[in-house]
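chain below, 191 aa
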Amino acid sequence: GHVERVMLLSQIIGKSIFEKENGQSAQENIDLLVQCAKYHDCGRSNDATDVGHSKRSAEKMQQLLQQEGYSDNEIHIMQAAVEYHEYEDEESTFNRICKKYDIPEKEIEKTRQIANCLKDADALDRVRFHDEMATLKKDKLRTEVAKGLISTATDLIEYYQSYDKTEFSKKCQELQAARKISNSIVNETTK
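prediction:
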């Protein structure tokens, strides 16, 4: 449910953010982002407020990403983005996390973009909550494309609630694996 939706929303946001880059590097960045989405909550111990889950997720994902063949530098970028997703947007916190994972200066901006895309995709899935403290706050979204995806996120929740959960998860995974999100979706959301 949540992880698949965040993976899908990450891919849409990432395509918009990274499309300015040339081919290979843009796709590589989107891949790193989607991996972050896949593992961003793997360290959760419960579905309620779980302070520290992002740090546990970043630690846990290291071995999983090594098994998938990612380089140490790629893994550190993803760990930094995942650990940062739980925190408020503060430059000092972001810099501390990047330092912790030895992110090279030339990779800081890419790490920030990946982290911001992940945070927005995760935040968009908050449309599922009805509690005032947990609901999505549009003004907290970092990217313009994410602000345009609120209705899409709401639709995903409605589809998820009405579909067979196994079938919905399978469809999200197929879309992600086949990278069939068309540019027209991204373009529609940025109008």
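The chain has a mean pLDDT of 82. The radius of gyration is 16 Å.
thats it, cya
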